[in-house]
Amino acid sequence: MKIADMNWMQVDNYLQDDDRCVLPLGSVEQHAYLSLATDALLAERVALDAAEPLGVPVFPVQSYGLAPYFSAFPGTVTLKTGTYLALVRDLLDSLARQGFRRIVIVNGHGGNAPAAALATEWMAENPEVQVKFHNWWNAPRTLAFVKACDADSSHASWMESLPFTRVSGATPPATGKPLIDFARYAVLNPELVREYIGDGNFGGAYTRPEADTERMWQIAVEETRALIEGPWR
């Protein structure tokens, strides 16, 4: 359930019986023909779909993340690493203060990886709180299904193309793209990144049959829900 649909008294009542919550993390960055907010939209939706049957509250997605390598693409917004880690720390501090003791961070953007290390460090300082950091798109079953469909699937490909991430007036190519050379990509500045990757897709088909997308999403929701359920210590 959405925290946005609750008032403070309802949260107070919830905390009498349960101490779990979900915090989605996303990014606002280029996604080729898809929405600039794709990572934020996907992280929040998979968290909501997973948590709804469990009655666990989901906080609004933290939409801005770490995407300096895409900063030459118009519309991309990025935070400095220090700023981002301080923000995530403040969020965890606040949730713990309210009484949440089991927190699942559902991450939708690979560039936010430093937050995973921060969560581990934070738990060492707050041993009464458990935090799970979950990259929904590369959870074992989800990633296995994606790669079985299209081994080159990556950023801005069909695996991120859901009805709510597609934008009006954008028609992606019917063919796919070969996977980029990540070793080369890793040493390029933002302007050279834009020149190298072109439209922004890292590789793979732009679209696949809706049945594939729906099955991938079902698996992703199932894996995320299982993580919220447990095990917890």
TrEMBL record:
<keyword id="KW-0378">Hydrolase</keyword>
<dbReference type="GO" id="GO:0046872">
    <property type="term" value="F:metal ion binding"/>
</dbReference>
<dbReference type="Pfam" id="PF02633">
    <property type="entry name" value="Creatininase"/>
</dbReference>
<keyword id="KW-0862">Zinc</keyword>
<comment type="similarity">
    <text>Belongs to the creatininase superfamily.</text>
</comment>
<keyword id="KW-0479">Metal-binding</keyword>
<dbReference type="GO" id="GO:0009231">
    <property type="term" value="P:riboflavin biosynthetic process"/>
</dbReference>
<dbReference type="InterPro" id="IPR003785">
    <property type="entry name" value="Creatininase/forma_Hydrolase"/>
</dbReference>
<dbReference type="InterPro" id="IPR024087">
    <property type="entry name" value="Creatininase-like_sf"/>
</dbReference>
<dbReference type="GO" id="GO:0016811">
    <property type="term" value="F:hydrolase activity, acting on carbon-nitrogen (but not peptide) bonds, in linear amides"/>
</dbReference>
<protein>
    <submittedName>
        <fullName>Creatininase family protein</fullName>
    </submittedName>
</protein>
